[in-house]
Specification:
Blueprint lengths: L1 H36 L12 E7 L4 E7 L4 H6 L1 H8 L3 E6 L6 E7 L7 E2 L10 E7 L2 E6 L6 E4 L6 H14 L3 E6 L7 H10 L10 E2 L2 H25 L4 H6 L8 E6 L2 H4 L6 H20 L5 E7 L9 H4 L4 E4 L5 H8 L14 E4 L2 E7 L10
Parallel strand pairs: 5-15, 8-12, 8-13, 9-10, 9-11, 11-12
Antiparallel strand pairs: 1-2, 2-4, 3-4, 6-7, 6-15, 13-14, 14-15
Bound molecules: adenosine-5'-triphosphate and magnesium ion.
């Protein structure tokens, strides 16, 4: 009885495994034929690439691994053919770091959603801000690593929406927040109301939202003095940044987020008279100083621009805005200004809050405008 059972098990096992081989080998054969048809062959024994694995990387991405002796630049050339063969768009292609004869190709299984509502569970700790979702999962701005940012994008692409979401997180973290907003359209009214719950505005460094140029100058002067004071305190305490200083547990410095929405309104002004010229020269000077010095001091600057071209944004400030975010632009030159590549022109213009963040496509979280301040 036992031996009969044993034989049955063995036979079914071998049948199942040969079935599995057939199931696996059919796509392999089709794949081989496909590579042969497009004449995609390398050198050596294994001329035709072979698929050696498939892995679900995130809910949006599947990674397929190919063993081949074909260099990366040739793989890039058959990108379109591969997309048609698999009927899936490719997110990225890269050589495996461990074995350069393995090519990892990331296919898009599901596209990013057009809307993701912000939830406080998305919050990250320390100087990290949750921004949205990319094909690899959650995307975070780590301000301790890339202290200042530049957010570009055509009008209506979602720059202010992203800034509001970051401000909300900064308020929850009890950071000091100042918003320079020259539109005056009430874009930040709800986050201002939220901030009022947490901080004593009388003891702060000025109002939460500033739209008057003179008030703006005063704030930037106060911030510059604050940054220099902090840097002197670090030197005396023999520490190099705010984290180390605060970790000592004596006096604590509060991180500060300075948001400049529509920064062109501040940096690209034609002064009416001498006094105004002096005012804007001073503002420009403080911004440069802050962009250069405030990194270690825990003061972070985010600037929004419709088009941060060289005549609007000085190279010295721009070079310090290392975290780059770009919404849709139809003009490749505009995309290049922010990202140094054309990728922002490939974004779907009809989807709001869709950005290239550094080199990833991201759907930014959106916080619907609150009628009254959100509850904690
Ligand atoms: N992340 C997002 N997800 C979904 N919808 C968004 C998102 N961000 C913005 N929106 C929608 O798009 C509209 C325009 O966004 P927003 O005001 O942020 O654009 P903007 O880039 O600041 O434009 P402008 O340059 O004119 O100030 C918002 O009113 C909102 O309805
Ligand atoms: Mg805006």
């Amino acid at each position: 009885m036992d031996s009969v059972n044993f034989i049955i098990i063995c036979v079914s096992f071998s049948l199942l495994s040969s079935l599995a081989v057939i199931i696996i080998s059919i796509p392999q054969r089709r794949l081989k034929r496909f590579f042969e048809q497009i004449n995609f062959q390398g050198e050596g024994d294994e001329k035709i690439p072979r698929c050696i694995g498939r892995e679900q990387v995130s809910k949006y991405l599947v990674k397929m691994r190919f063993k081949s002796t074909i260099p990366t630049d040739r793989w890039e050339k058959i990108r379109g053919d591969l997309e048609l063969f698999y009927n899936k768009k490719i997110c990225k292609m890269e050589q495996s770091r461990k074995d350069i004869r393995i090519m990892d190709i990331y296919f898009i299984e599901a596209t990013l959603p057009p809307y993701i509502e912000w939830q406080d569970e998305f919050m990250e700790d320390r100087a990290r801000f949750a921004i949205g979702e990319g094909y690899n999962g959650k995307v975070v701005w780590d301000a301790s690593n890339l202290p200042h940012g530049l957010i570009g994008g055509a009008t209506g692409s979602g720059k202010t929406g992203l800034l509001r979401c970051i401000i909300h997180q900064a308020i929850k973290k009890r950071w000091n927040v100042s918003v320079l907003d020259f539109k005056g359209g009430g874009d930040f009214t709800d986050v201002e109301q939220e901030a009022e719950k947490y901080r004593d505005l009388e003891d702060g460094y000025g109002p939460f939202i500033i739209s008057d140029p003179e008030e703006n100058r005063q704030l930037l002067l106060a911030l510059t003095i604050e940054v220099k004071g902090r840097l002197a305190a670090f030197k005396e305490a023999d520490v190099s940044n705010i984290e180390e200083y605060n970790a000592r547990g004596r006096e604590q410095f509060v991180p500060w987020l300075l948001v400049v929405d529509e920064a062109a309104e501040l940096l690209d002004v034609k002064p009416k008279d001498k006094a105004e010229k002096e005012l804007y020269t001073e503002i420009d000077h403080y911004l440069r100083t802050l962009a250069r010095l405030s990194r270690a001091a825990g003061v972070h600057i985010l600037m929004g621009f419709i088009r941060p071209s060289a005549d609007v944004l000085d190279g010295q400030i721009k070079n310090n805005l290392l975290w780059r975010v770009c919404g849709y632009f139809s003009d490749p030159a505009a995309s290049r200004i922010v990202l140094d590549n054309d990728r922002a022109t490939e974004l779907p213009p009809e989807i709001k809050g869709r950005f290239i963040v550094r080199d990833e496509e991201v759907q930014a979280y959106y916080m619907p405008i609150q009628k009254s301040a959100p509850e904690e």
